[in-house]
Every structure is written in C-alpha cells, then in structure tokens.
Amino acid sequence: MSTHTPLSGKTAIITGSNSGIGLGVAHELAKAGANIVLNSFTDRDEDHQLAKDMAKEHGVEVRYIKADMSKSDDCRALIETAGACDILVNNAGIQHVAPIDDFPVEKWNAILAINLSSAFHTTAAALPMMRKAGWGRVINIASAHGLTASPYKSAYVAAKHGIVGLTKVTALETAEEPITCNAVCPGYVLTPLVEAQIPDTMKQYNMDRDTVIREVLLDRQPSKQFATVEELGGTCVFLASDYAKQITGTTISVDGGWTAL
C-alpha cells in the first residue's frame, strides 16, 4: 500500500472501469488513497472479485456497481447508488469504424450515448454531491480525437469533440466553486484490446511486431511509444490533487506529440 495518499477519504467513480484505461485509472486513484467505485454494464462474479482484489491491494474501499452507460437513468442511478462522488472519471466508451454514408445508425446512436451523453448524465447527478461536500473533480477521458480527426470515425470524433465542449461548460459553471473539470486526451494506449489487435495486424501487413507498432499503430504518434494506463491514471491523480486547483476547463494531451502535428 502506498504511503502517499493525498486522496484519502475521497470517493472516485470511474465509468467503464473493469478493464483497460478505466481500470488503470482506478488503480492509480486507489494508490493515492481514494475509495473506488468500479463500473461496467455486466454484473459477473469476476466484476465483484475485481473490486475485492483492488481493495485488498490498496487498502481502500472498492465497490462494483452495474450500470449501462447507454441508458440515461442508469448513468444517474450509478451516482445515486454510490452515495458519494468527490471524483468523477467519465471513461466509458466504444468505437466503430465506417464511412459516413455506410455508418450504421444504431452504432452512431450507441457511440453518442455511451461516449458523450453518459458524461452529461453522470456529471448532472454528481455536481450536487460535490457542492454539498464543498469539493469536486470531474475528469473526462476524451481522446486525441477530441482535438483532431481521422476518416471513418465520425461518431467517435464527434462524441469526443463534444466531451471537450462539455468539459469547458462544466468548468465555467463551477468556476467560482472548489470544483474543477478537465479532459484528458490520450493518443494510442497499450490496453489488452490494442494488444489483441497486434497479431492480426502483423498478418495483414506482413510485418514483425515492432514494425507494426511503429509504422501502423503509432503512425500518428510522434514519440513512437504507446501511452500507458498508469500514465493516464497518474494524470488523473494530478488533476484531482491540490496542485491542479486552478486547472479547469482545459485539455491535457497524453499522446506522444500527436496533436502537435
């Protein structure tokens, strides 16, 4: 257990956090002393075991609450069920790639609901709790695609641009209060999902692993290195700390220079 616990006594809710970036962020916030609420749309034994294991590892309280981020009532119920929300990390997201004229309407609707509207609903439910507590942090996990675009990702890019806009409005509405709202914009992050794509991509391009990573996956990431979930978690810990009291309504890129291009 870490001895440096600046977030001790705080409760952090992280949406879409039983794997990938969300889980990595949850671990870093737990290391910093925050009690954690994990979330996804499933309700399996392994989801609750994940919470138990994290609690044991970091010596904090950890709960898992099922809520479907495509449903507005579930989004708000997640916050109410948690009972406290000092730190809200809106992380849940899905992706689909297709040209605009072939983009399935149901995929567009799902991506906008999960990647954008969920953050509106959770924030709306969390702000009264933060105001009552006299402190709060809203951290929206956007993307490099919240600041730039790629072809065939219309819904994702639109949603992530929307998240950046929502972040600014939230910050302005809370500017005179001890509440901040910022967006973290990752580039490519090495998650189990990305890791699983590497072998197929190697076959597709007839390249070795290192070449696929450097020339295909990280083509737009000048550092030619993945960001890690730990780095993103550490960025969230910083934004939740007193050092970041005057950082609000902005984006922090963790993208190896992608958006500098």
TrEMBL record:
GO biological-process terms attached to the record: monocarboxylic acid metabolic process
GO MF, one annotated term: 3-hydroxybutyrate dehydrogenase activity
InterPro entries: 3-OHbutyrate_DH (IPR011294), NAD(P)-bd_dom_sf (IPR036291), Sc_DH/Rdtase_CS (IPR020904), SDR (IPR050259), SDR_fam (IPR002347)
Domain of life where this protein originates: Bacteria
Stated family: Belongs to the short-chain dehydrogenases/reductases (SDR) family.
Name the UniProt record assigns to this protein: 3-hydroxybutyrate dehydrogenase
Organism: Celeribacter baekdonensis B30
